[in-house]
Amino acid sequence: MGKVFVIAQGGGPTAVINQTVAGAALEARRRHPDSKVLGTRHGVRGLRKGDFIDLSALSEADLRRFADTPNAGLGSTRDKPDDKYCEEALAQLRKVGANAFIYIGGNDTAGTQQILDRSAGGNIAFIHAPKTVDNDLVENDHTPGYISAAWFVAGAFLSLDLDFRAMPGIYAGIVMGRHAGFLTAAGAAWRAREEDGPHLVYVPEHGFSMKQLIYEVGAVREKYGRCIIAMSEGVLGEDGRPLLESLRETIERDAHGNIQLAGGDLGVAIAGALSTAFPKVRVRVDTFGYLPRAYPGMADATDRQEAFDCGVFAVATAEEGSCSVGLQFDGTRTLPRRVALGAVAGKTRLMPPDFMNSDGNNVAAAGIAYLQRLLPPRPPILPLI
Amino acid sequence: MGKVFVIAQGGGPTAVINQTVAGAALEARRRHPDSKVLGTRHGVRGLRKGDFIDLSALSEADLRRFADTPNAGLGSTRDKPDDKYCEEALAQLRKVGANAFIYIGGNDTAGTQQILDRSAGGNIAFIHAPKTVDNDLVENDHTPGYISAAWFVAGAFLSLDLDFRAMPGIYAGIVMGRHAGFLTAAGAAWRAREEDGPHLVYVPEHGFSMKQLIYEVGAVREKYGRCIIAMSEGVLGEDGRPLLESLRETIERDAHGNIQLAGGDLGVAIAGALSTAFPKVRVRVDTFGYLPRAYPGMADATDRQEAFDCGVFAVATAEEGSCSVGLQFDGTRTLPRRVALGAVAGKTRLMPPDFMNSDGNNVAAAGIAYLQRLLPPRPPILPLI
Fold first, then answer.
1. In Å, how far are A11, A115, A129, B57 from A89, measured between CA atoms?
2. Residue A57: CB partners within 8 Å, gap ≥ 6?
3. Mapped to the 3 state alphabet, what secondary structure does A2-18 carry?
4. What is the distance in angstroms between the Cα of A122 and the nearest Cα belonging to chain B?
5. Would you please indicate which residues of A are annotated as catalytic (active-site) residues?
6. Which of B108, B220, B263, B324 could join A271 in a cystine, given CB atoms 3.0 to 4.6 angstroms apart?
């Protein structure tokens, strides 16, 4: 009997997560023509129930079309297996005679692979393939999915800066990122002149306060007549706790109507604080939320290829046993490498300190250089004001 | 001395508003090689001060590059001239010997042209060129800027439906549109199967209540396991007033902290109501806000051409006197026509009643047909769940 590869997707979606599935499936077909590749529906949740999709039955054309489909096309989950869950998942892997289980996701997913690997006892290779728009995996220069999402964010802030150049005011775009500011920082990738926005960039790696915000926005407005702010959902308040959490508590304690507040609280609080401090000024705050994660037509070519290559690499090195695939940069090229599951599982990579300026309110030269190395070039625009 | 055309941009930005400027400038150059085309900085605000940009000095290549720049590249304004303002603006037009003033914008901009035309007394042609992502101008099948913005919204909901197919839950995307639901309705353009989202579409043209929302979301979840909602910022509450306004008052009255609420209130209230009604369910609400208006790289080819053609047409027919340019559809082609300024100024076009279903909670066949006539085709995706 030929080799059997089982593959699954965990956590949030990206524009290129299906590329990794297609890369694995096509590499298995190429290396082992008699192999079988089974996708599980909804990650380990489907694995536990033996809910498989036979990817070997798909034509190469369909696999390529699947690869170009944004979001997790096999379905995803945030389940974290306990002992019993693990045993059930392993029983299904044994039942189909799996040689390797490839699980695509972030550090939680790497953690699941570590747990499964420990329980399995060596007969199956547990391979974690990287994926996260947050770009917060250690042992990776950047992660598949990040470039495409960052591209979306860069384009958004390029446009919003032009918008407020045309009609002055204050704009804040709230970008996903609970711990790491990489995605928010991408808003600054395409700045060309000193006056270009975003003029203020707030990320979870640095302190933040409403008082600081008002002061800094005032200073920027004085200089440029407008102020564009990129802010992570995960910015911390003065007490070191996520501001979003503190705000939620405050608002829920104070409000007595039947209106409950959640989700966009941060944007609402920021809009309120800015409108109060700068009355009569045009203020707008939007929550980009899920939009940058897997926007159709915005899968970057490099990102697509790298995600595909991670799937190829997972299959190509499966015989060497369990590992996490890390996308590493050697100064010239970005290539997948085998790293220990334990080196990645549960760990969060933050932005290197030199990516931000010393005030912690903007992206510094090292950060811009990193973003420009990864992202497509700025579109050739020519505003006349 | 050759002819003099003055051109300006008013109101919110679009992805193609600069196409109309370029179309006018290039047509003036072609028809009248000795003509002069002056752009005003920030609409009538710059006109009043004589703040001009000489577009005749730009090469065709630069004008084409300007055309492809998203957002109002001459600057914009929402100023509504009073008598004195009018006189100052007219004085500047006379000073440069203007034969025509072309003002690109929505129904407010048409109103400004009507006021200027009345005050000027016939020596200058005041031409309103259409532009709005809201698509709410009468005498137009659709308006330049709408197709590109609608394309963005269609792509967003395609992706979000895939996202929640991969991991179940409830999602609401709040889309701009105070009076007309065209842009929100565009979220439904690419639905292919009955189970595809958005499953609920709420627009200002129809009644809305939180109670109705909770009931309808419950019914959709029972059927499909997920629920994707597209909602206009301008949905009306049970009292017939914009819900956003009522909510703002409620929250401001109830909250005693230093947090003032504004802007994203609607999204926050919707998220709160859904989380309360469906505890333990994944709920997310995002405010798309300004993102769809002029996203770089998402200027639709038809939209670009039509916006350009409106500028060409304005110059080509300027000798016939003041008018509004209306993009009209004859059943086969969409072509610009001259219509009276008074027919457009201050009027708001709503969605035709048959664009929505009888429950007022989803786009009906006529609406989908309209959207599919305008938008690019759905991308060829292949999710496997």
1. 17, 11, 18, 70
2. none
3. CCEEEEEECCCCCCCHH
4. 30
5. 134
6. B263
Residue A252: pLDDT over 60:
no
The proportion of chain A whose per-residue pLDDT surpasses 90, expressed as a percent, equals 87
Low-confidence residues of chain B: pLDDT under 70: 1, 249-264
Domain ranges of chain B: 4-133+296-344, 148-292+352-374
B262 contacts on A by Cβ (under 8 Å): 268, 271-272, 275, 283
Question: Is the CATH code 3.40.50.450 the one for domain B4-133+296-344?
Answer: yes
| CA gap B356, B367 in Å, rounded | 7
| pLDDT per position as a tens digit, B4-28 | 999 999 999 999 999 999 999 999 9
Please tell me the distance from the alpha carbon of residue B297 to that of residue A187, in angstroms, as a whole number: 16
- Cα separation values, B24 from B17, B122, B308, B309, B314, Å: 12, 21, 8, 8, 7
Chain A residues inside the 8 Å CB shell of B156: 291, 295
pTM of the model: 0.96
Which of B34, B83, B117, B134 is labelled catalytic? B134
For the stretch B69-111, pLDDT in tens is 999 999 999 999 998 999 999 999 999 999 999 999 999 999 9
Structure tokens at B197: 């989202």
Q: Are B230 and A232 in contact (CB under 8 A)?
A: no
Q: What value does the mean pLDDT of chain B take?
A: 93
B242 φ/ψ angles, rounded to the nearest 5 degrees:
-55, 125
Backbone phi and psi for residue B232, each to the nearest 5 degrees, phi listed first: -75, 145
For the domain made up of B148-292+352-374, the CATH class stated in words is alpha beta
The pLDDT tens digits for A43-85 are 999 999 999 999 999 999 999 999 999 999 999 999 999 989 9
- How much is the mean pLDDT over chain A? 93
Whether residues B286 and A284 touch (CB distance < 8 A) is answered with no
Contact A290 B286 (CB under 8 A): yes
Distance from CA of B139 to the nearest CA of A (A): 27
**Contact check, Cβ <8 Å, B159/A72:** no
The pLDDT score that the predictor gives to residue A262 is 42
Mutate to test the interface with B, among A260, A288, A375 (most CBs of B within 10 A): A260
Percent of chain B scoring above 70 in pLDDT = 95
Mean pLDDT on A155-161: 98
What CATH number has the domain spanning A146-295+352-374? Answer: 3.40.50.460
Which residues in chain A touch residue B70, judged by CB atoms under 8 angstroms apart?
159, 162, 381
pLDDT of B1 = 66
Which residue, among B213, B266, B290, B378, would best test binding to A if mutated, counting the most A CBs under 10 Å from its CB?
Answer: B290
Cα–Cα distance list, A287 to A145, A178, B265, B328 (Å): 20, 14, 12, 36
Residue A1 pLDDT level (bands cut at 50, 70, 90) = low
Tell me whether the CATH fold assigned to B4-133+296-344 matches the one assigned to B148-292+352-374: yes
Q: What is the CATH number of domain A4-145+298-344?
A: 3.40.50.450
